[in-house]
Amino acid sequence: MAINIFVSRPNALDNNQRSTVQILQELLETRGMSARTIGATDFPNVSPMKAVEHLMKECSGAVILGFPQLIVQKGISKPNTQQETSIKNKFLPTPWNHIESSMAFMLQLPMLVIRNQGVEGGIFDVGTTGHFIHTFDLNNQDWVKEHSFLQPFNEWHKEVLRK
Asked: 38 with 28: CB under 8 angstroms?
């Protein structure tokens, strides 16, 4: 029986992102794991937060995939405060990455956090959870073959097997 892995990712994907998710799912399958995502593999009849909670409790690990879902071409961060700054071309992930990674953290699931180059904020900020934030060009599917990904993936996999 496959080990369930919660994969936090947007459901609206472009062709490159869809290919990346497919390659990651295939890698998980070669290790006896099954990728599970609300709205992609699972379609519960409860509210999204409850659905995530129920599904995560069936999982032994989590992968958080940070794809750009919102591009802020020009804006202001923390307006009208002493920390106000101008921002330009900022890439933000789906808010569900933050919600789902927080839930995985609370459930003490082994997490593998991966972001596309330029995606930032919340879970993708260094030091947020103590997990290393792996950064790749997720539009180029060769990143899953790189030693800089495979070594931490193998370490995460061992942690999942101990869960």
From this structure: no
How far apart CA 9 and CA 65 sit, in angstroms, is 5
| Cα–Cα distance for residue pair 122/150, rounded to 1 Å | 24
Nearest to 65 by CA among 30, 31, 98, 27: 98
C-alpha closest to that of 63 among 90, 16, 91, 29 = 29
Q: Residue type at 47?
A: S
- The model's pTM: 0.93
Q: Name the DSSP letter for residue 79.
A: T
Sort residue 36 into left (φ over 0), alpha (ψ -120 to 50) or beta.
Answer: beta
At residue 142, does pLDDT exceed 90?
A: no
Q: Which SS3 state, helix, strand or coil, does residue 132 take?
A: coil
Query: What confidence tens digit (pLDDT) does each residue in 27-60 have?
Result: 999 999 999 999 999 999 999 999 999 999 999 9
Helices (H), the chain: 15-30, 48-56, 95-106, 147-162
* CA dihedral sign of residues 76, 77, 82, 83: negative
pLDDT at residue 47, as a whole number = 94
The reported pLDDT for the residue numbered 94 is: 96
